[in-house]
Amino acid sequence: MKGDQATNGGENGAWAVGTEEESMERAVVSMNTLPDEILLTIFSFVDATAMLVTVPYTCRRWRRVSSDVRPLKIDVSFGTVVGRALVTHVQRRAGGALVLADLVKRFRFVSEINLTGFKEMTDGGVIGLAENCPNLVSINVSRCARLTDRCISEGLSKHCPKLTRVDMSYATLLTNKGVQYLAEHALGKLTAVNFGHCPNIGDASVQALAINCPNLTLANFNVCNGVTDEAVVALAQGCPNLVHVDFYFCQLTDVAVLELGRNCRNLRTLNLGQCRITDDSVAALGARSTHLVEVNLRGCSVTDAGVVAVAEGNHGLVTVELTQCDQLTDASGVALATHCPRLKTLKLRSCHHLTDATAKALGRRCPELTALDMANCSKLTDDGVEGIVVGCRRLVEVDFQNCKLLTDKGASAVGRLRMLSKITFLGCPLLTSKSVEAFTDLRPRVKLCRGIPGW
Question: Computed from CA positions of residues 246, 252, 254, 255, in that sequence, does the dihedral angle turn out positive or negative?
Fold first, then answer.
């Protein structure tokens, strides 16, 4: 009974239950009474800044236990609140990037580090991190512009034998020598590399990866103008498991793309924007690579034949960019709508021959569309926009810039899309202030609205 001591008989004798007050007192648990295993689990949910600069300095036990958190993923990218806080902490102490390496060294199982945008990061900082993180699997130092080949030769390749993913995009001082060293010492373990926007990277880097890294699934050489057909042919032959490739603005022709189609049958993401390719390779690729989810052919010399082949062979397409493919007609637009009902993002900017037929087909067949860009499609009219609105109710972003035939009727139809957050009608001379009435209810949600008179 309440407030009284009671006893119950058990197989091995009686056990006692004290008063309610005594039970509650015993039930109070402090952090000091938790087993190490429970404390370790709690620490696994703590953010990077706290793990590096707070937890280890709370008490000796926390310092000892926290060193065993595994796998520890440190995300201090400058785009995050945690990242900004830690960068601020580091900047306040002498040594800059080296301070971060010192903070990390007490943790034995650091597996991932994301330092995106950490401008203070130097070769010495990366070398220090590598020395203290022998279990490192992934490192992202994108936009750390001060890094050179030295951070690879004396750091990552020397001290991180388990490394599988490296992102050094925008490392403008990095050269082929560094990438070659990384590839040759990776022991075939690399699966993902991003060297986009590294102007000194060329064929030698890609060929080194092709020879030494057969397990690559992701290769990004976006805007590496020194990459040509010769290297990509070697990559396609040496890395048949490629899933994501980005060669935007590289010096590629049909030769490279045909080889990708012949050897890499599991491609899902393909960016060949601004490459000198034609229907010959695009059509062949569409027939052979049937798992594509994202395709970018921006500015390529493709016609309906190439786009139709890609659409017919890849019904799971979600994102397609055909900006400035000015030879395309409604045959391409209708094929995409007919064969790719899962489309969510479609960019048809400056495809001047497209008409309402494409717009209406999208409205009939693509209910999951969330972003549509038909800017500069000068033949689009209010009827086409009405067709889009009827079937694509999930649209969040629409761009009808310079669609000069649109009137208030078309704009009012767009106003019925209740999920919109970005709208562009710039360069639509027939719109008047009456259009703004259709968007009255959307004002609280719309983040960007351009071209609506009176907005």
Answer: negative
CA torsion sign for 161, 72, 166, 115 is negative
pLDDT tens column, 144-199: 999 999 999 999 999 999 999 999 999 999 999 999 999 999 989 999 999 999 99
CA–CA distance, 210 with 214 (Å, rounded to integer): 7
DSSP state of 220: E
Find, among 336, 395, 339, 389, the residue nearest to 369 by Cα. Answer: 395
With b meaning 16 or more CB within 10 Å and e meaning fewer, what string describes 433-446? eebbebbeebeeee
In b/e form, how buried is each residue of 268-305, taking b as 16+ CB within 10 angstroms?
bbbbbbbbebbbbbbbbbbebbeebbbbbbbbbebbbb
- Position 338 confidence tier, pLDDT thresholds 50, 70, 90: very high
Q: Are 190 and 156 in contact (CB under 8 A)?
A: no
Q: What is the number of other CB atoms lying within 10 angstroms of the CB of residue 267?
A: 23
**Coil, strand or helix at 194:** strand
The Cβ of residue 319 has, within 10 Å, a number of other Cβ atoms equal to 17
Give residue 20's identity as a one-letter amino acid code: E
Q: Which of 421, 379, 432 is nearest to 399 (CA)?
A: 421
| Of 147, 156, 219, residue with least CA distance to 184 | 156
Q: Which of 233, 293, 294, 295 is nearest to 264 (CA)?
A: 233
- pLDDT of 195 reads 98
Question: Strand pairing of 15-17 and 6-8?
Answer: antiparallel
Spatial separation of the C-alpha atoms in residues 98 and 199, rounded to whole Å: 27
Q: First and final CA of the chain: distance in angstroms?
A: 72
Residues 279-299: pLDDT tens digits?
999 999 999 999 999 999 999
- Contact yes or no for 168/147 (Cβ under 8 A): yes
Whole-model pTM?
Answer: 0.86
Residue 246 zone, left/alpha/beta (φ > 0; ψ -120 to 50; rest): beta
**DSSP classification of residue 250:** S
Query: E strands within 197-264?
Result: 218-220, 244-246
